[in-house]
Amino acid sequence: MNPFLFLAAILGSALVLLPRSEASDFNYVEALQKSLYFYEAQQAGRLSPNNRVAWRADSCLEDGQDIGHDLAGGWFDAGDHWTANLTMGFAAMTLAWSAVESPEAWRRSGQMGVLLESLVHVNDYFLRCVLNPDCREPATELEVAIGCGGREGVEAPNVHSIWGPAETAHLLTRRPTFRLNRKVPGGDIPAAMAAAMAAAAMVIRDHGEILRKRPGFHDFQAGEFASRLLDRSAKLTEFALANAGPVLAPTLSTAQKEEISRRRRLALRADGKVVETGYRADPFDKIVAAASWLARAEASGLRGSEGRWFGVALGVYTNQYRLEENQDWWKDYGAGNFGKLAAFNLMRLHPEDPRFHEELQSYCTRFCGYRSTPGGLRLREWHAHEYGSLRHANNAATIALHYSDHVGNAPAIPGNTWWKEGRSNEALRELFRGVGRKQVDYALGENPYGRSYLVGFGRDPFNDVHHRGAFGAWAGFDHFIPGKADDRATSRHVLYGALVAGPDHNDVFLCGPKRRLWGPLPLGGDGFLYLFPGRQKAIPKDGYVWSAGDSPVQDVMDSQFNEVALDYNAGITASFAWLIEHGHGSGAPIPDTGFPPRTVRVPDDNLRRTDRELFLSGRRAGAASGGATWELRLHNRTRWPAKVVRRLTTELALPGDRPTQESMPRVEQDSTRGVKAVVELDRKKSPTRIRITFEGLLLHPGNAESATFGFRLIWPTASDVDAIAAGLPAGTEEVMIPGAEVSAMESIPSRP
Prior knowledge:
Layout: H1 3-12, H2 28-41, E1 83-84, H3 85-101, H4 103-108, H5 112-129, H6 138-141, E2 144-148, H7 169-172, E3 177-180, H8 188-211, H9 222-243, H10 254-263, E4 266-269, E5 274-276, H11 284-299, H12 308-323, H13 339-349, H14 354-368, E6 371-372, E7 378-379, H15 389-407, H16 425-444, H17 468-471, E8 516-520, E9 526-530, E10 539-540, H18 566-581, E11 614-624, E12 627-636, E13 644-654, E14 666-668, E15 676-682, E16 688-699, E17 708-714, H19 721-725, E18 735-736, E19 741-748
Antiparallel strand pairs: 1-2, 2-3, 3-4, 4-5, 6-7, 8-9, 9-10, 11-12, 11-18, 12-17, 13-16, 13-19, 14-17, 15-16
């Protein structure tokens, strides 16, 4: 890009930082605490021992079995239920990096133990993704799993085919395992995993004594675990380097570039087919990141001091990395590109080398000059980065904040440094800190709405995010069809600490296709329009000036502005720790006894809105041959957490001695579902109870059909006295039968 055009663009936008107010002295410790809760809510497989999310349980325990391995674990990617090792690796690496750079913040805030448990959870999964770690030649023989489930490369029903809890995802979607090997090579995800594992090894090794104080970890061998992580990280990096493929050089033809890009998306599916998969990226920035982390581990004494990995990192950095232009300012830090953290690591290893400072200074300076929304949010891509705007701004901001600690001692950079605009290194430090912190504070409430985009934190937070588990669904997509379920537009659970995707470049947070329209503009042509609540007509997006009279709208089905994800939280979490380390903010974490707060449930008798989890409903259906008939339904709306019920009983209490064994009611049901019903009379209890046991059920809150089981109960005489006495309804409208006791005798999963 022409530097004068770039400078003109900056000056022409008249960017200024909004003044800070006293009210913006946020409690970054509480924000850090809640962000870690979000990562606990994302846990796949067996939950970690001290998981605090009451509405989560073990899930997707069969992952990896299609290739003969146990790959249940890791973190779910976003508001859906698949394990994507690229974004998972980015988030895990960024959190571990934060603890390496700001250890006292994590210790003083009391969050180091929680972080370590999360890092162990995700890295234990990464260890198992290295399918044959004892192979003789990792570069040519290693087999690497890169995720389970997803959308691309998955036959229907895929991850987006359901709207339900994670605990039922394995029953309703296909979750094939994807992997890489010498025949289907790739360097991106193996290197991303390697970077995360090496970074985590440093934290776990240095702070393992904190983890051993937590329940379930008293015998945890931090040194042994860290050594295994470094061993696998080294093997993955060797594999990635050998299998990254050709460089995507600018001089190649369009056809050559497209073919290289296509090959970088390939993976081996469990059924043996080679398919294109989602969430793939370029490899060389991640290889430098992985090798630089291994080099830092060497420098800290975890692997000796031979310095091999710095040489590997520098070799790729000066060749393939730069040939693919990863050093350029427009290669933002994020799940798609680890380059700026790789450069940061190399700078930390050799702070006297101007090459690394040049990349970081150029990036951070330009970040501070990105076009700003009126409220102060910096976006490089004015339109494209509206998708997850707070993610883009805060992942860049955390590089600026962390590098600000080192720019003051940077060596002179040779050549033309016009982008510094004559600023001294000390002036750059203050610039990076001011703009970087502004992005954090914008998310926490220093924005035009004065509301927090961090769920469950601060003033009037936007809590109803696009997240299947937090929504607390039991009827699938029927929740959004009027009259089909509870017609609910809000989340039942609070996904504390999740960073909402964020507003657009006008600072407008308006979600949903009914609010953001495409159509004719008043002055001609087509374009985007806003339809705000209270306005009769849609108004053009271009030229709109934010107004307090135009209320924001949050829509749980909007995945562009209302999504949450692993990589969304990564950078801002690291920034919380940096700000704490530097003495910013005020307040303390919420005591364990008060966080998370206990949920208030409403177990009323309204069929649509009740918080009852297992219950019976029914209506009188009239007389049938041999007696009076009721149509009944068992409901599984378990949400604390969701459970799959395979054996269930329901009991109806009877006054006096009715009925006799000879006059017991009988059950009729759809025989095709393979459910066995046993009716018993229990006189040991007072009053006497009729107990109906259903065996062979598959009752779960994955969707409206799977959450209910219907049957007919026929009393053997035409008289309905016994049935009414038992609490069955006298009317023909379906109602809850609150007197019926329903309990699960066999259910999965359960809390550990």
